[in-house]
Amino acid sequence: MKKQILINIIASIIAFLVQMVISFGLTPILVNSLGEDAYGFIGLANNFVTYATVFTVAINSIAGRFISIAYNKGEIEKANSYYSSLFFANAILSIVIFFLSIFITIELHNIIKIPFSLNYDVKITFLLVFINFIFSLFHVTFQVVPFVKNKVSLVSVVTAVSNILKVAIILCLFSLFQPKIYYIAIATLAYSTILLVLCICISKKLSSELKIHVHSFDWKSVKTLFVSGIWNSINNLSRIILVGFDLLIANIFVGSYSMGILSISKNIPNAIDTLLSTLAVAFVPSITISYAKNRIQDVISEIKFSMKMIALLMIVPVAGFIIFGTDFYRLWLHKSIEEVKLIQLLSVLTLIPYMFSICNFTLPNIDTITNKLKRASIFTLAMSIVTLITEIVVLKTSDLGVIAIASVSSFYWVIKLAIFNPLNAAKNLNVKWYTFYPDFLKSFFCFCLILILYLFLYQYMSITSWKDLILSAILFGTIGYVISFLFILNKKEKNWVYNKISSRLPFVNGGG
Q1: How many CB atoms lie within 10 A of CB 445?
Q2: Tens of pLDDT along 374-418?
Q3: What proportions of the chain, in percent to the nearest 5, are helix, strand and coil?
Q4: What is the domain partition of the chain in residue ranges?
Q5: Model pTM score
Q6: Rounded to whole angstroms, what are the CA distances from 35 to 31, 41, 176, 264, 497?
Q7: 347 and 362 in contact (C-beta within 8 Å)?
C-alpha cells in the first residue's frame, strides 16, 4: 500500500513541477503584455468559478467516497449506481450552469467594476472560464475510477501532459496575435478537453466493472450523494468567503490595480495549495479503503504517516519562500522595489496559514471519509461570516487596503487549522482528542526551527542574480530537508525511506 502511495506522491510532485515551470515562465509575460489590471481579471474569473462550485460540490465531493466503499465491499451494482448517477447529475448541472453563465456574462458590467477598454475581453474570458468549469464536472466523474483503484498517479501524469500542451497554445496565441486575456481561457479550455479525453481512456483501461449506464441511474443515489455532500457545499462556501472573496472585495473596495497586485501575490500560495491538495489526495484512496474494511487503527496510522510525509515535503519550500520571496519577485517580475515588497508582504500573509496546514492537511479529508461533515461545515461557515464582516469593517475604517484582506482571512484560517481540525478529526474517528496533536506539533516546531535557522543564515547571503538564488535554494533546501528527515520521521519510517532509496540505488547497498 505504501508503495502505491509513494508512486502517487511522486506523480503529484511531477505534475506540480510542470505547473510551476509553466506559471513561472508565463506570469511575467502575461503581466507585461496585459498589465496588472487585466491580469487581475483572470484570477477574478477563476474565483467566480469557485463560487459556482458551491452548487456542484455537494454531489461531486462525496461521490468518490461512496463509490470506493461500495466497490471495495464487493457491491459492484451499488457502485455503478452511484457512478452513473454522478455522471447524469453532472450532465444536468452543466446545462443549468451554461445558461446561468450566459446571463452572468451579459450582466457582468453591473456586477463588478470593469474598465471600459477591457469590457469585451473580460466578458469573453468569464464565459470561457464558465464553459471550462462545465468540462471540469466531467473530469471529476472520470477521475473516480483511478481514485477507487488507488491509481491517482495516472491522473497526475495526464494533468502534467495537458498542462504542457496548454502553455504551448498560450505561447502560440500571444506570439501570433495581439495579446488578449481570453487567450488564457481558450488555452485552458483546450487543456480541459485534452484532460477529459485522457481521463476517459484511463477509466476504461482501469476497470471493466465500473461503467456508466442509463439504466443504472437512480434518483435515490443522487439524493444520497446530495444529502451527504450538502455539508461539503456549505464548507466550500465558507472557504470561499474566507479566502476566495479576496479579489472580488479588492475590486469593489480598493480598485482593479490593487486587485491585480493581490492576484500576482497569490500565484505561489495558490501553487502550494494545489500541491498540498494533490499530495493529500495521494493518501486518501488508501485511507478510504482501510475505512471501508473497518480497519480503524490502519486509518489512524495512515493519517499520521500522511501528515508526516506532507510536512517533510512541504516545510522546506514554504519556509524558503518566506525568506527568499522578495529576491524571487525582484528577479522574476522586474517591478519597482515598492511593488515587490507589497507583493511579498501579501504572499507571506497568505502563506501564514500554510505554516499550520502543511502539518495536518490530510485531516479535513476524514470528514468526507467518515461522512461526518456537519460539525466542520457549521463551524467554518460561522467563522467565514465573521471573517467577511471583519474585512469590510477594517477596509472602511483604515487605509490598509489589500493588506487588510490578506491578513484578516489568514488570521481566522489559522484558528481553524491549528485548533479545530485536529480535534474534529479525532472526534469523527472516535479516538482521544489529542491523537493527532503530537505529530502536528512536532512538525510545526520543526517548521519554526527551520524558519529561524533560515532567517539567521540569510543575513550572510547576497542575492543579485538567478544563479545566486538557485545556489542558495539548493544549500538551504539541503539543510532543511536533512533537519526535517531527522526530526519528523521515527526510526521505522526512516528505515522505510532508506530502503526505498537503497533498493533503487545499487551503490547504496553495495551493488555493482
Answers
A1: 13
A2: 898 889 888 888 988 998 898 888 888 888 888 888 888 898 899
A3: 85, 0, 15
A4: 2-502
A5: 0.70
A6: 5, 11, 19, 11, 46
A7: no
